[in-house]
Amino acid sequence: MNKLRELYMLIESCKGYFFIMSLHEKSIKYLYPRNSSMRFVYLFIVTLFTTTTLAAQSSSILRFVVSEEGGQPIVSANVLLFEGDEEEYTDYGVTTRDGFVEFRGLSAGTYRVRISFIGFETFEEYYEIQPSETKVYRLTLEEAVGELQEVQVIGEGNSTGGVGITRVRAEDLSRLPSASLEGDLMAYIQTMPGVISTGDQGGDLYIRGGTPAQNLVLVDNIPLIKPFHISNLFSAFPEKAVNDVQIMAGGFDNRYMSSTSAVIDVNLKTGNYNRSGGSASFSPYMSTVFVESPLVQGKSSLVLSGRKSTINGFSGYLGTEKQEMEFYDVIARYTLQGSQFNCSASMILTGDEGKINETRNQTLSWYNTGAGLRCFGFDETFDHPFEVSMGFSNFNNSEGSELVTERDADVTQGYLRLDMQEELLNLRIDYGINILMQGYKARADERFTSIDDGVDIIDGVVQLYTKTKWQPSRWLAIEPGIGTQFASESEATLEPRVRVQYNPLKNNRMELSFATGIYAQTMEGITDQRDAGSTFTIYRSTRRGEPLPSAFHAIVSAQNKIGRYWTTNVEAYYKDHQNTPVPLWTQETGVETEIILADGETYGMDFRLEFNNGPLFWYAGYGLGKVEYSAVGSNLGEWLGNEVVSYTPAHDQRHKFNTYINYNVKGTTLSAGWEFGSGLPYTQIYATDLRLNIPDQDPIRDPGITDAYYDEPYTERLPVYHRLDISAKRFFEINPRFEIGAELGAINVYDRTNVFYLDVVEFEVVNQSRFLPYASVSLNLD
Prior knowledge:
By secondary structure, the protein is mainly β. It has two domains: 2-140, Immunoglobulins (Immunoglobulin-like), CATH 2.60.40.10; 165-781, Beta Barrel (Maltoporin, Chain A). Helices cover 6% and strands 53% of the residues.
């Protein structure tokens, strides 16, 4: 039987090889790298896809899938493997987004497994395994009762996610004051050092110098653009719909190939396999509905989450300012659990429309639609687990008056992704392919001269990667990788990256890490940065003959766990962005301009301190950074006849400090958060003039139209920003399965007047939201 299986695998591998070669010759010749220096990388990675390990398995494998009682996978649990009753562990692992971990190369015998995760009782059990056997076990952890247990941290960045990466659980989102009775990802992200939002409206995030268009957002592998609401209090990801999130501010590995700055990878919640539950809440800002239910007991489940803003109806009460904005989000996820696989089908819809400046006749809107399938297989008959996913997404944004849409842009993406593993020289090799088809359409009248005729492009992108993890000792891990991506309109890239983790004290309490690499993306996002009152963005693929946007990252970090409750993390980072599209600076406001390329340099340092003993959680974060754009080739524009060769853009914030505290006392949860930011750059008005349309207007009778002229770009800074938010919430149990929740709170408690931006169109200063009190109520069925 083994010989027959080997023969079958050989035939399949050959079929796959010749199939790819035939595609290369006949139908995807345009996707093959035209750059001869890249062909070696292309052929090397393709070989991985068409080569199957034919040697008979001579060792045994133990696989575990770890979940909560309701079936929700537990991510980042520590798993230690012992031989029999030995006290020293022989191997360790950390569970993935599927709660999966495996131990390979085992000899026949008895093994003891110990699994620990904060908030759950430590699991320990013995397992017997035979020669050349693969065994799969599904395990359920029980919730801990009483004092918070200390968890032994093993493996790279298990507390924070590793250098440049922050792992976020749904519980983390609940600790911040929120205008609804559940946490939200947007509120959490804005507390992170190095993350800048230029105001409390607009939905844009700048992460360590990168622009919103340089960020990649994935939701169960579905690529989305700007799933953040027009009110910066909310994203499309409420606490109850999220299992975990990885926020990668830089230095991420080659699995992520479409970003030059940052990645936000969202893993949606798996519905309860055993019993139904749900909730509904209402506040002056948002109404929400959440439902989860098993469809087949223990096998499949469904999650539905829907939220809609109520700001329009309630803003202006108690003396607060009127706000014209509406937004919604809908999330659905179907999950099927087999003995040897997990599959899910996800769908997300978001919509935003409103004004950033209430006195300006300009309405902004953006919408997301996405759907995808994802399967993770770990059957005993497979030597290695694998993951396959496919789906599509669509993003549309526009700006215009209440009656006429003046500009709009649309991006449609379809994808097919396969991630696999093999072994080579006793090293696990991760590799994958992602095939993208992207369609771009845009209409941008009187904004950019080069696209006056609009954008209508269809582009295909192939992304390949491979990486491994080499551990010369228990205390040192080196993770090198390489990737390439090529499109019909651009040359192939070469993107080597490496991540290193070292435990110098050999006690799992201190971790030193380093990450560096080359990053590129084939999609460009173009925004008129001269107008701070507009977030409208045009997306397109890089045009043939133009260089791709790219970046170099370098990050070093030191993480230390002090005692049972304290954790510190310090990171220093550097990013060198190249070929970032920006508008050519003009002295006149509101005139049409050209798109040029700029280089951006970002460097800084982040510091985070956490205390967590269960009832009390305290966090403080400080970020120091600088961002500067410089000209590529000629200049970035002109001012009074002089060339502009460099400037600090509007998201260059020198200092940022955030702190928040969450304390549970006798069933009531008290939260408070304070944030401070130094002033952001802005451009002053240099002069104004009255323009007459000659000969249609008479200089004696007609006053003319007021024109404004910019000063030098971004030479002044807005006043410092600070704000205090507080909340108190409590849940009242009616019966063991039903409870009522109530929350009182306020945003900007001491009514600070924080400047948002200077509107050069309306000649006025636009402020952020003032004092916003709220009361929320919820009904919860568990």
